[in-house]
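Structure tokens please, single chain.
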Amino acid sequence: MVAPSSGRHPKVNSAIRRTAVAVSASTMTLMLAACGALDGSSDGDEASPTKGDDITVGLLLPEKSNSRYEKFDYPIIKEKVETLTDGKGKVVYANAEQDAAEQNRQLAQMVADKVDVLLVDAVDSKDIASGVKKAKEAGIPVIAYDRLAEGPIDAYVSFDNEAVGQVQGRALVDELDGGKSQKIVMMNGAVTDPNAAQFKDGALGELSGKVTIAKSYDTKEWKPANARANMMAAISAIGADNIAGVYSANDGMAGGIISALKAAGVTSLPPITGQDAELDAVQRVVIGDQFMSVYKPYPQEAETAAEMAVAVVRGFGIEFDSLTPDKATSPTNKNIPANLLQVSALTKDTIKSTVLRDGIYTADQICTAKYKTACDSLGIK
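Here you go.
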């Protein structure tokens, strides 16, 4: 497994230690809250203790092209809120499908409907700031989920995004191991997503000086079709045979990149990275079309977000080690209480110890007829 080394990335390792504390303490968080132990505060307004179990959580997610949001995030948050509130709490859900203006309308509607707390995964982290401010003015706490929104948010839960890029970049360098003369294409995410910049920074820290970045793109809206078009341009400029590897910031774009390479007649694909451990990406890893992905434990992220939301609505401060052991900084706010969860590399060798172990997929889901022979060779049954 590719993981941050102890000597080179102290920030990431401190996140690992803090996350271990968060996981071990999460089961007793609400019990502590009930006893008044969550007495921290955030820079934003505090929720007043006027609610018990009868709460409404507004959940705003950004898109559906990445299957994780509909398959994991929403149902896990919904189930966790129900569990924490003895079935009396509910989640009101809206997905903006990559439309920032639509997400602002959805947020405004939830404010008008007087939800008790908002979990916001922003399409555009800057554009959402005015809506966040209006929610706060209405007395509704706002927790940034997965992407760090601007504006007066109360807390943030996500993954260590710089570590994501580090894991991807290091995996690619280790696989190539051929020196700086090797040319790669760097396919980054959307500039409207602050996570994309962190992925990019982390990856560059591993790639710079070790390979030649022949072409680099910021991919509009993270769309696979846009990544495919970018890759076709890169192939035209560099030559397919001269591309030693491709840094792809996520799995969806990796699919578009692979399509472009195959359309250009490439039969032996270079190593291509990804992120999110989507099912089709895991299957591509099994057969060797995609070199690796980054596995992010979505159940842990979603359950932590639900705990934060329930705790803040009940009137308890959320700056407590079991929930927010980290700090984050946005362009508009500093020292935001945060929980940054650790990630790991998913390769052929780690499928069993990541997505299978955690029940994200079953062997039957991965090893359909097309992939069965490859699965058998990897011992995936």
